């Protein structure tokens, strides 16, 4: 196997890990936060409990993680099966990169305005990790797409680099 394929396979494995973390944390938080908000409203009577769009952003994070898993798996399979056109896989990965970026930005902006902070404990850290892994996914995806296009020119039309 060519070195370029090994490098892309390793980067796509990192994308798979990143997508799994994003999906897992987003689903966990998406299930937890409505319960947190209800309990907070009961105690503080709506004064400190405005999550300002955090729950929908985490729902979008679930989509980001699922799409990231799909793109990473397609990329890994395409690394070993030459029948899959490179441009299709790179297009899917590029789209997932844009989705990673939009999810990370949405969570960052909403988290900066939310009253859900360090007092919330490990859940706040989990949201920050979710955000960080979305940005990591974006960066690694852009590296994969960039290398894929560079190496694609050398390997032909259907080589899934």
TrEMBL record:
Membrane spanning residue stretches: 57-81, 88-111, 131-151
Signal peptide, first to last residue: 1-24
Keyword field: Membrane, Signal, Transmembrane, Transmembrane helix
Membrane topology annotation: Multi-pass membrane protein
InterPro entries referenced in this protein's UniProt entry, alphabetically: Marvel
One Pfam family matching this protein: MARVEL
UniProt keyword Cell membrane, yes or no: no
The keyword Secreted belongs to this UniProt entry's keyword annotation: no
Residues covered by the MARVEL domain: 7-143
First-listed, main subcellular location of the protein, grouped into a coarse class: membrane
Record protein name field: MARVEL domain-containing protein
């Amino acid at each position: 196997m060519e070195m370029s394929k090994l490098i892309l396979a390793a980067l796509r494995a990192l994308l798979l890990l990143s997508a799994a973390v994003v999906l897992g944390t987003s689903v966990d938080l998406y299930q937890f936060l409505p319960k947190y908000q209800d309990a907070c409203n009961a105690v503080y009577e709506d004064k400190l409990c405005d999550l300002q769009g955090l729950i929908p952003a985490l729902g979008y994070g679930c989509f980001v993680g699922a799409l990231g898993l799909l793109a990473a798996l397609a990329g890994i399979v395409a690394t070993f099966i030459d029948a899959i056109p490179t441009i299709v896989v790179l297009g899917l990965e590029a789209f997932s990169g844009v989705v990673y970026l939009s999810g990370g930005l949405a969570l960052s902006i909403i988290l900066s305005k939310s009253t859900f902070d360090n007092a919330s404990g490990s859940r706040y850290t989990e949201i920050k990790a979710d955000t960080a892994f979305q940005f990591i996914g974006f960066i690694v995806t852009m590296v994969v797409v960039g290398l894929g296009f560079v190496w694609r020119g050398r390997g032909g039309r259907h080589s899934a680099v």
